[in-house]
Design brief:
The complex is a heterodimer of chains A (about 300) and B (about 100).
Chain A: H1 10-36, H2 51-64, H3 66-79, H4 84-96, H5 100-121, H6 131-169, H7 173-188, H8 194-208, H9 213-222, H10 224-239, H11 246-260, H12 268-271, H13 275-296
Helix pairs in contact in A: 1-2, 1-3, 1-8, 3-4, 3-5, 4-5, 4-6, 5-6, 7-8, 7-9, 7-13, 8-9, 9-13, 10-11
Chain B: E1 2-8, H1 15-29, E2 33-40, E3 43-45, H2 50-55, E4 58-63, E5 78-81, H3 83-88, H4 90-101
Parallel strand pairs in B: 1-2, 1-4, 4-5
Antiparallel strand pairs in B: 2-3
The chains are: A mainly alpha (about 300), B alpha/beta (about 100).
Chain lengths: ~300, ~100
């Protein structure tokens, strides 16, 4: 008999992020290229469609499925394979009642823990043993978690989401600067590790509700270190004071292009040599970039609902 | 002693592989034998063989996410840490590990 898994938040959310990152990248790229070429979502295939339309449509499918993907991944992380079916279906519920990304997160936790509870606590006579994974879990875990979504948590999620959206919509410039700086620091100082990913989950939730500024801050500050170190290299050239050895320079050659596409991790070999100094520099840069970005209202839109 | 383990971080691009490097290097420096599997964005690499697992004294899972194939280690002593611990202070991790085994 399996033990009921302990309640844990971070690992499951991280697993969800690791599942949906490639999907966001793939569908986001397709959507962006499709949109640039003038594509739009295909509504009816028999009416005919252009090449650009195919890319926009595929991108839209991927991004539109995020609540389901998040819910499935979290339920899988909690309850292993039996969690997948309830997670997917309850993720659709989250989508259906328009609770978006946050709803998907909660749907995943509900489906996962309900499944895990059934696995741990339901005891059946041996002739029924085979029925538990084939019938009982897919049916009842889904039903229970789905009903909880519809009747218990759906309303409060919508209420809570609207509350946050209204609050963020009414920020004055000084508050924006402050929030921008905070997001900037938190998203940058651990170079794409756990803290950055936690902030990512948060700003992505806002992003999926149509608030684009916070995720823009995260994207900008993710580029700070690769850009900063590369700039430092060229400034070093100008003032004739080289602070990098030949290995560092080789690292920069790959870290800079990676930085352009928002992957911070390329700078790791350099950063790990003297972590506190780099964290300080990055944190200051992150705060300034975040504050300015929020103040000027920079936004990145790589999502366009089809 | 003999160590097997898994490294897996959230994005699966960098920490996973740095954690593996650090664990291998630290193990070697301290006179242990280690093999570490990575479960990154590129899928499972350096997959552990059942022979290695069977003869291992301890399992290290350095992961921020759910890892695949945990059932392979049933009955083994498993030490679980976030990848950050393996990346930033592998020596401390091994000190604890050695204490707990002996």
């Amino acid at each position: 008999m399996n033990k009921m898994p302990k309640f844990e938040l971070r690992k499951h959310v991280m697993t969800a992020i690791s599942f949906f990152l490639p999907i966001v990248v793939g569908s986001g790229m397709l959507l962006a290229i499709g949109n640039i070429m003038g594509g739009s979502g295909i509504e009816n295939f028999s009416d005919g469609f252009s090449f650009a339309d195919t890319m926009t449509t595929m991108g839209g499918y991927g991004l539109g499925a995020l609540p389901m993907i998040v819910a499935t991944a979290i339920a899988y992380s909690i309850a292993d394979k039996p969690g997948i079916a309830p997670g997917l279906i309850v993720g659709f519920v989250a989508q259906g009642i328009q609770t978006g990304f946050i709803g998907g997160l909660i749907a995943g936790f509900l489906a996962g823990y309900v499944t895990a509870a059934i696995v741990s606590y339901i005891r059946v006579p041996s002739w029924m043993q085979g029925l538990v994974p084939t019938m009982v879990i897919p049916t009842f875990a889904t039903l229970i978690a789905g009903l909880l979504m519809y009747y218990v948590v759906g309303g409060p999620i919508t209420w809570f989401t609207n509350l946050i959206l209204n609050y963020l919509g009414s920020l004055d410039p000084s508050q924006k600067v402050l929030y921008g700086a905070i997001i900037g620091v938190l998203a940058s100082i651990d170079y794409g590790s756990a803290l950055n990913k936690t902030v990512f989950a948060f700003v992505f939730a806002l992003f999926s509700e149509g608030i684009y500024e916070p995720i823009t801050v995260l994207i900008i500050v993710s580029m700070i270190t690769p850009f900063g170190l590369t700039l430092a290299y060229f400034i070093g050239k100008v003032v004739n004071k080289n602070i990098f050895d030949s290995v560092d320079i080789e690292t920069l050659k790959t870290a800079f292009p990676m930085g352009i596409v928002q992957i911070t991790e390329g700078v790791f070999p350099i950063v790990l040599k003297s972590l506190p100094r780099h964290m300080l520099a990055t944190g200051v840069g992150g705060a300034v970039a975040g504050a300015l970005s929020m103040l000027w209202g920079q936004i990145v839109i790589y999502q366009h609902r089809v | 002693m003999k160590i097997v383990g898994i490294a897996a971080c959230t994005a699966g691009i960098a920490h996973t592989y740095i954690a593996r490097e650090k664990l291998l290097k630290t193990a070697e420096a301290r006179g242990h034998e280690a093999s570490i599997e990575t479960q990154g964005l590129a899928g499972t690499e350096n997959k552990l063989s059942q022979k290695d697992i069977d003869s291992a004294d301890v399992v290290i899972i350095a992961a921020d996410i759910k890892v695949n194939g945990r059932e392979r280690f049933s009955g083994k002593k498993i030490i679980e840490v976030p990848t950050n611990v393996a990346v930033k202070s592998p020596n401390k991790l091994f000190e604890k590990l050695e204490e707990s085994i002996i």
